[in-house]
Amino acid sequence: MMNYIQSSRNSTIKEIKALHLKKNREAEGLYFVEGIRFVKDAVDNGQEIVKVIMSDKLESLNGGKELIDRVAAVGADCFVVNEKVFKEISDTQTPQGIMAVLKKREFKLNNVIEQGSAIVILDSLQDPGNVGTIIRTSDAANISAVFMTKGCVDLFSPKVLRSTMGSVFHIPIFEGQNIKEIAGQLKKAGYRIIASHLSGKNNYYEENLSGKIVLVIGNEANGISDETAELSDSLVKIPMPGRAESLNAAVAASIMIYETVRQKTK
After folding, report:
1. Do 50 and 177 share a domain, yes or no?
2. How confident is the model at residue 67 (pLDDT cuts 50, 70, 90)?
3. What is an annotated GO biological process for this record, any one (predicted)?
4. 194 has which bridge partners?
């Protein structure tokens, strides 16, 4: 059943606008994704969809009619608004006319640690594009989980979500982790913690990454914290024979992540 909303003062529209703020996403346990492909991915991956808001122009877009039928079939509350109202709640400059409000998933930390073999920790990363790209790369490389420490950018901000290209639906991600506590749990479970550091003694490809390992990627400006360095079993570096002083965090993470793939499939 479609519900039609004419005014931007409608309570449902106000609820959507509120989800643009992190504090409200955390309080409600909800977030939103936007665009035909992203909403389709949410449906395909069995996400819990609370409600769907669509523009009255959606049906005329390529893939719009099919998506309308699919979201209606999952039983979510569906609301239709005019294009002006949709632009008010959209986070993009060129809205595609559909967004879905989703319930945040919860994963059991102990199960992920016990069953995993390779984990990525993001130590206070702040750039949404970097975080989203690392999550996408981790998904592609079959990483068991991504842990985000306190101080990282909000996973459910629209910019991070868009950068994951749907991988946020495929891989367990844990926010707000205390690095000391999580490192202790991982070591107890038999993981070795490998951190990227400019003063690392070994090149990353000289490390044995074929077992249960954790790769730590540090903050864009400051790298890993001193506390994280002390907790690590090994500090490694990526050789840079050229003149650049450092690599982009997402690039560095991708290089190291795919070395684990190479070693595990060797």
Report:
1. no
2. confident
3. methylation
4. 215, 234
